[in-house]
Amino acid sequence: ELSRLKDEFLTRTSHELRTPLHGMIGMAEGLMGDQQAPLSGKQQQDLSIMISSGRRLSHLIDDILDFSLLKHQDLQLNLQPVSVRDIVKLVFRSVQTLVREKSLELINTIPLNFPLAEADENRLQQILYNLIGNAIKFTPQGLIEVGGHQAHDLLVIVVKDTGIGIAPHQLERIFNPFEQAAESSKAYDGVGLGLTVTKQLVELHSGQLTVVSEEGTGSSFTFTLPISKQQSPLSKDSLFIDENVHSTSIRLSNEDVSPEAAFPLLQLSVPDAQYHILAVDDDPINLQVIVNHLRSLNENVTTAINGLEALEVLEQEWPIDLIILDVMMPQMNGYETCHKIRERFSREELPIILLTAKNQTRDVVEGLCAGANDYLTKPFHKEELLARIDGLLQLKTNTRLKEEIQQRQQVESQLLATQQHLVAILNTLDEAVLAFTHEGRITFFNQQAEALFGYTLDELLNQSMQHLIPEWEDALDFALLSLHQKDAENTIVLKQKLQLTVHHKNKSLLPLDADVLLLQTPEEHFFVMSIARSSSPTLFNYETRFQQLENLLKELLPALTQENQAFFQKLRETPRFPNMPEGFPQLITPHPEMRQTVVELVSLSIQYWIKATQKTKEAFAEESGLWSVHLEKRGVYRARNLERYSSLKTLPKNPRVKTVLQTAEYVLNTCPEVPQLKTRLETSLAQLKKYSQ
């Protein structure tokens, strides 16, 4: 009695579903065919998805109804002569929606003169649709062949595929209700009624359905039908007659199917997007729905149709900020994909939202244990999906800001230690050293300057040079003119000797000799002035004192001596410095092709670093210690010197070849291997070494 009530409930429910479903499909088809109000391509595509989804649900309802009718032996057949060859051709056309992203060849090898079968045309179409559709579902690529031959008074039809196959212990169970074809089919859609209904329909035609299969090779379903006693030839205007061919071969892929059957996977690209989202689902309809939902976020969206493709996207299109991952997928399900992703990225680095129709507690627990941040059950509401995405992206942003703050604090701490070290060095000099901006704002002077001027640093810090040298602008007029002639290749713009009168704190006037350097950084110009009393030697009068200043500037501006080799070369050529001390930078005469090789090697090194570590070039400059990193006014870290070496237009005239070589060697020695870049990087490195010998 309970079984009867259950069957009755299924039957009535299925009938009740049919009416609104038929209305939905009919309305959508009507809108697509309305010539008076033509739709846009996007609207037609969305309606095609609705129609395809409705038809899939309609087939499922038909299977449930037929299962109930067959169980109670209430299904009646309308037997008549039927061309099996033509029915196969009709089914081939109707299964285009099942092909999706696959590349399959569907072959109809049933002979043109194949005898007519005694069958119900609609039920034979249903039998072949279920068998061919099942073959498409479990065949990622290859071919599906439908052939036939006559055996006495029976027709033998064979549906053969090159799919995943069926395990031997599963062969006896596949025709049971609610069973699927293989253990791996857990990752495929379906309720497991198709083969049950198919087998009973074949037996209702007085035939038999059998299967032969081998895992990893494919399956072959064979069924028999009686031969019709009426074998009159079909009329010439029959829809499917083709007298010139004996077999039909159709290669179907996502590029071949009609607009109603194919749903291209959309990629959203937004110029000012802040985040990049990856959506993964083997069902293109579900992907289309997700992409439509995400459109309102104005973020970049990339799609993938399985776990393996998702991992490839992570390799090629980093950075990805969030992944929406379906659980039930072929080849590699969502749980397995999640485990693979977590081998490289933490929950904070790359949040994952799992989507599934399963809502049992154990399923949620399994997903979270696999490394998911969140779990959403289908069908879900758009607002809920967007809210969860927003929450995870905000968490990722907060984590990123926390890391940047920690990095900034570390850099500031290092800068403070360096500053203290430099101040100690400057205080050891015999001369008074004064630094000020091109606007005349005092930024530093050492203890000797305090003793010379009578002021403390706190008294004059950020004060105008008018306090010390009222006529400083007139005295440095020549230098101020140089501010408009910025030299991108040199840190020291010019050097000049002056005689100045300095106002002491006690109002006395001090005639002094001063040597002035005009220096430039990427942000601004500033002056460094070395002062001594007229009766005492100045810092630049002796070769040893010049070496002291050079060493000091090396500490202040690490890139000075290597980026300004031309400046020091001029010093060598002056009569005052016939013998330069040891340690001065030696110039390398550039090879005609050396500059191009330098740029190529730096660019390859940075590409290799980013690919291998997923870190920025600024992080490379800081961790390697080979390039300087500056904190700009807007709070962003920049490795400007490193950036200059990435283009021939900005490359210095005399590049720091040794540092470039060390850059490539550091990347090769410390980073995980990147096969597609390693050979190119090693070749470029060897070439630059050859030039620099």
Key features?
693 residues; alpha/beta; six-stranded mixed sheet; five-stranded parallel sheet; 43% helix; 18% strand; elongated
Helix-strand layout with pairing:
Layout: H1 2-32, H2 41-71, E1 79-82, H3 84-94, H4 96-99, E2 103-108, E3 117-120, H5 121-137, E4 141-151, E5 154-161, H6 194-204, E6 209-214, E7 218-226, E8 248-252, E9 276-280, H7 284-294, E10 300-304, H8 307-316, E11 322-326, H9 334-342, E12 352-356, H10 361-369, E13 374-377, H11 382-426, E14 432-437, E15 442-445, H12 447-453, H13 457-460, H14 472-475, H15 477-481, E16 492-503, E17 509-520, E18 525-533, H16 543-556, H17 560-563, H18 565-573, H19 594-613, H20 617-624, E19 630-631, E20 637-638, H21 640-644, H22 657-670, H23 675-692
Parallel strand pairs: 2-4, 9-10, 9-11, 11-12, 12-13
Antiparallel strand pairs: 1-3, 2-8, 4-5, 5-7, 6-7, 14-15, 14-18, 16-17, 17-18, 19-20
Helix pairs in contact: 1-2, 2-6, 3-5, 5-6, 8-9, 19-22, 19-23, 22-23
Summarize the entry for a quick read.
By secondary structure, this protein is of the alpha/beta class.
Describe this structure in words.
It is a single chain. With 693 residues, this protein is an alpha/beta fold. Helices cover 43% and strands 18% of the residues. Strands 6-7-5-4-2-8 form a 6-stranded mixed β-sheet. The protein has a 5-stranded parallel β-sheet with strand order 10-9-11-12-13, with helices on both faces. The longest helix has 45 residues, at 382-426.
